[in-house]
Amino acid sequence: MHSGELFEHLNALTDWTTRLREEKLPILLYGMGDGAEKIFSVLGSRGIGIDGVMASDEFLRGQVFLGHKVIGEAEAVARFGDFVAVLCFALRKELTKIALEFSKRHTLISPNIAVCGEEICDKDYILKNFDRFSYIYDRFEDDESRNVFRSIMEYNVTGDVSYLFNVKGDRLSVDPHGKAYVDVGAYDGDTVAEFFSEKLPYSRIYAFEPDAHSFKKLKQNTAHIENVVSINAAVGEKAGLARFSGEGSMNSHVGEGENEIEVVTIDGLGDEIGAIKIDAEGLDREVLYGAVNTICDSHPEISVAVYHRAGDIYDLSRLLLYYDPSYRLYLRKIDYIPAWDIFVTAK
Predict the structure, then answer these.
(1) What is the pLDDT of residue 247?
(2) Across the chain, where does the E strand assignment appear?
(3) pLDDT the model gives residue 278
(4) Domains of the chain from N-terminus onward
């Protein structure tokens, strides 16, 4: 499918906002917490009300959330009969089956609200910015990348999670070719361990994690791996200090909070860098800014997260091509609801 056909295809799909505005069945939030509050706010701003809140049975404690008693699926069926559920929590890999099975029993809508920023990659945003999206779509190296892109856009327009599983979920590895490997946003060491399991030759691994709690786990979980340099710092455009909000989870943020964290740059490492993985919770662009000399001089393979902000797929992809036009770009995703863990890999 070329980009013109993709535009017409996406334009013909009913977007999730219109679907929910016109819905005759009761609308229930499925889930609680910060994610549910954010989605509730977005729905309200678009003139969409809710009729209740539900949760999986194991999370029921008689809670009241957003003015509604939280109920389970069975009670929701008893009270409302059929209904539409708006998914408000994330599910990864095997856990995505929970949502897929639920969607066979009831209509499930999963709005993809950006992790960072105010913009939402919905139908209006996609069509408005389609020239930029199509520029990158046409430059992806293989059909798999274009298929992944199409499935993500179909999901973003409709909120239908089934689109996300029209393609295989996997991650494309980056090869340091015997040089150093840099992991930005190493979290608890899971991606370091994943890289190490691929048995690619490397000189050392630089693993950066700003959150102190996650950093402790990182040290513990990578103790058996040779030549790992674990650094409790953020990576950005310039070296210095930054505000930091650490939550001991993947939701830690640089640039806000009461704590301070050291910020370093990839260009400042003073080593031969062969490969870089970046998952920096919305500061992925700044990490690339601070790696421009490394990229231009050494042409490392790079895998960068492109799901934190609405325009990351085209913004970060174009930045990579601007730094080094010889890069070949690939798009891959892990099985995740909503459309998270999406990476552009430059080789």
Answers:
(1) 60
(2) 27-30, 52-54, 64-65, 68-71, 84-87, 91-92, 107-109, 180-184, 205-208, 228-231, 234-235, 240-245, 253-254, 259-264, 273-278, 301-305, 329-333, 336-337, 342-346
(3) 98
(4) 3-165 (3.40.50.20), 180-299 (3.40.50.150)
